[in-house]
């Protein structure tokens, strides 16, 4: 099976796409992804802090109970 002579390589197609797009089009999906990442990290930080406080409280109760 031979390739058709009209077909272009991936690099040629990529260059054509890059010529058609504006600079803003390259970053179109960046804002939602950044928002998702920031919210995810904020949630994880809140959970971490709550767990840390809970474990510190439990450890304090355990130590005072032993004495």
Structural commentary:
This protein has 67 residues and is an all-alpha fold. The protein has a domain at 23-66. The chain contains 3 helices and no strands. It is rod-shaped. The chain starts with 9 loop residues before the first helix and ends with a helix.
Keywords:
0% strand, 67 residues, mainly alpha
Percent of residues in helices: over 70%
Give me the Rg, rounded. Answer: 27 Å
- Unreliable spans: none
Mean of pLDDT: 89
What structural class should be given to the helix and strand makeup? mainly alpha
* Percentage of β-strand residues: under 5%
From the N-terminal CA to the C-terminal CA, the straight-line distance is: 83 Å
Q: If helices are DSSP runs of H or I spanning 4 or more residues, what is the number of helices?
A: 3
Largest sheet geometry = none
Q: What's the order of the H and E elements?
A: HHH
């Amino acid at each position: 099976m031979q390739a058709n002579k009209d077909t272009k390589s991936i690099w040629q197609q990529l260059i054509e796409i890059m010529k058609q797009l504006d600079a803003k089009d390259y970053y179109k999906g960046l804002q939602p992804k950044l928002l998702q990442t920031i919210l995810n990290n904020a949630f994880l930080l809140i959970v971490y802090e709550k767990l840390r406080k809970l474990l510190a409280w439990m450890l304090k109760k355990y130590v005072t109970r032993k004495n």
